[in-house]
F-box/FBD/LRR-repeat protein At2g04230-like isoform X1 (Camelina sativa), 466 residues
Amino acid sequence: MQNVFVANCHLYKLQWNINRSSNRVAMNEEGRISELPDALLLQILSSLPTENAIATSVLSKRWRSLWTMLPKLKFDCDYNPVIHDDNIDPRVFSENVLKSLALHKAPVFESLHLKFAGEYDCLDVGMWMATAFARGVRRLVLDSFYQEEQTVTLPSVLFGYNDTLEILKLKCAIDLEFPSRVCLKSLRKLCLDQVHFKDEESVCNLFRGCPSLEELVVDRYSNADVATYTIAVPSLLRLTINDLNQEGGYGNGGYVINAPALKYLDISGFNGLGSCLIEKAPELVEAKISYVSDITNENILESLTSAKRLILHLSPLEVKVPTGKIFDQLVFLELCTYEIEWWNLLSIMLGSSPKLQILKLTDVYLREDKKNPDERIWNPPKCVPECLLFHLETFVWIGYECQRGDEKEVAMYILQNARQLKKATISTKRIEMGMLEKLEKRREMLNKLASVLWDSNSCQLVFEST
């Protein structure tokens, strides 16, 4: 690694001297670095922007085609190593990309990353993609930023058959239309960031054509394209959906998720949708559900009963809480204490999770102006939950508010009834040393919590400041 660092320093110095036309010093630096083996030089070039790596081809015969063996290429239409010009001719950029791809001859084409404006037409983008596909590229990133609201439509014919692409990331000003068959035979990971589908058929055709897909990441505005976003992928193991539309969707559309092999689920920002229906996920291990509210028809919590780890940042008033359902595999639970009536969700989850071992309560905002702090009243379960009596070993509370009645009652109840507890960590918001009254009240509260432990000899109680 030291040799690479030293060589990098020489290479940057060489480029700087060439720009300053110091020919004698530049030749000395070029001679020094050219003595290194090809493998090390390629490692050095890989750490440079692709445009800089290609520019080294003018140094000497030794460097002329060295860059063509780079396994990873990245082109940015906003980048120019000589001048910084926001009005770079799109045709020049497109021709440079095509020329570079034509000269490229690495035995394994690991990655191609293209960042371009929406003003490029589908012919340009199609030629880039076709060339990359012909070279067997394994990872393709198309990052198309908005240019005066212009977008580019990817040629659907290129998705008709491909057996080498493993990772595909599409971002922003890209339109997708798949009226017919799609076949991305080897695709394992797909990221769709604010891209637009023409219709629901296009969504279904894309996912149906990815038989090996294991990970899907979707960031979208739910009211921007299709009403019902259907994800039916039998092979899918990990699914992340971040709905960026905070104002709500169509009101009569939403999500349908059918992924029977799913092991990890993360959904966030579902607001005002008509539905969110998740088919049974018997293999689910971990799920994170946050900022979900006002969905007319949903079964989110009901679909998570096989999970071993749950992170729920939501209110029981804003989602349907199943009755009679048992989370009998759950060993880790995290709840957000900023949500309305979070304590009622806690009661339900404690009563429904007989094997729970780790409980984490957190206020992600660490705010003092929490909603109606004086009106919160917690009614503990009528019977002590089985998990507290026999299984809970770790209790963590981040952002504990000493002066809030509901938080005090919850903390005391858990410490008093968790008979197998081995460690409890209470983290409070930092109080300045000058605020003596608050410091004294916090000390009294923490002492009171310590006094109610079921067995102080078997549990380690830790107090921290956040």
